[in-house]
Amino acid sequence: MTDILLLGQVLWFDGDPLAEAWQRVCRHSSRGGVLLREGRILATGEADALRRDHPQAEVTDYGDALILPGFVDAHMHYPQTGMIASWGKRLIDWLNSYTFPEEMRFGDPAYARAQADVTLELALANGTTTLASFCTIHPESVTAFFEAAEARGMGVVAGKTCMDRNAPEGLRDTPQSAHDASKALLEAWHRRGRATYAITPRFSPTSTPEQLEAMGALWAAHPDCLMQTHLSEQTDEIAWVRDLFPSARDYLDTYEQHGLLGERGLYGHAIHLEPREIDRLAETGAAVVHCPTSNTFIGSGLFDMEGLKARGIPVGLATDTGGGSSFSMLRTMAAAYEIGQLRGTPLHPSQLLWLATEGSARALHMGGQIGTLTPGAHADLCILDLASTPAIAQRSTRAEDIWEAVFPTIMMGDDRAVREVWLSGQRVSRA
Ligand code: GUN
Ligand code: ZN
Question: Which structural domain range is residue 37 located in?
Fold first, then answer.
């Protein structure tokens, strides 16, 4: 197999720009390159040196376009693609009015596969190469998503969403059936090719303590799996959790009491946290996932990036489609910036780009494998055109450094900015 050399502007990181001074850990080459061999990254650096050292490599020159790792969307719901941008409700009413009726349809494997295909094509068109998705209670919905990802060579995370109360007839399983179906699915899919299984209790309000216990036991028996759920998204949700679990110290404790708090746990939203919850997340090494377009769209609140990062809690970034209002991680970064502004702590473009790539990858325990241009990582790449629309182009021509050149695309860019995507060292052809 011949080596492939991609040339363009390149940005890469030697560390976490939210944990250390971003100036110290960011590397930029205005004439750089990324060398690919057998689906992996072999080297990243200056174009001239890579050309000289690898004269046989097949070259694709992207000019001034920016070569980045593919984006990593650390929390989304592929079954909600068909009802994204549904108007005017807050979380619980939004779930009952829009989400549950749509999720009811995923017992049909053909419908599930069609929605999985649409979602993955939209993700790739937006430069996203890995997604962590909730499915529905139907095992067919999980199989459909993993099969659609496998057909494209995409590394994804997914799991059967488990609910045994406070959901309509047709969308409820039981503690035993949730356990057994999840077990069968993880045995079929976890670490098959690039697939990762996440044990997926939807959130405490839709699971009995018995179901949470069964999920905790399954995770204890398969500790290499991830576990994904939701935590403290809206204040009325938290009040409901308090009523449903009177003996729990707080929302996180409803998971902790049942063996569902751990290092490989992923807690979506995590906005309205008690000090004890923050302490426990920090002590256990669990990750939280920031879903900014969802938090503004459903009216949930302002995530405390600075406070949680200061405690060393890993944070991923995510669209949360269809509570989120966009498939684009560019739009998601823009929303994260805006939420930072409203809190008085704006994120630097380097920090936004890191969160959308390596930050999410680390939250998913895939650091070094995806979301990075470091040698050995999968060659999943997103090539960004930094002048994709007239509005962006007129602004970026005045840029005096790479940050001024890329920030207009973060704030105003969409799928038109995605020039090309590579998956496991293969150029992705547009559907
Ligand atoms: N909490 C429980 N389920 C969901 C969901 O589907 N979307 C969002 N945003 N929050 C949830
Ligand atoms: Zn969600």
Answer: 4-69+371-427
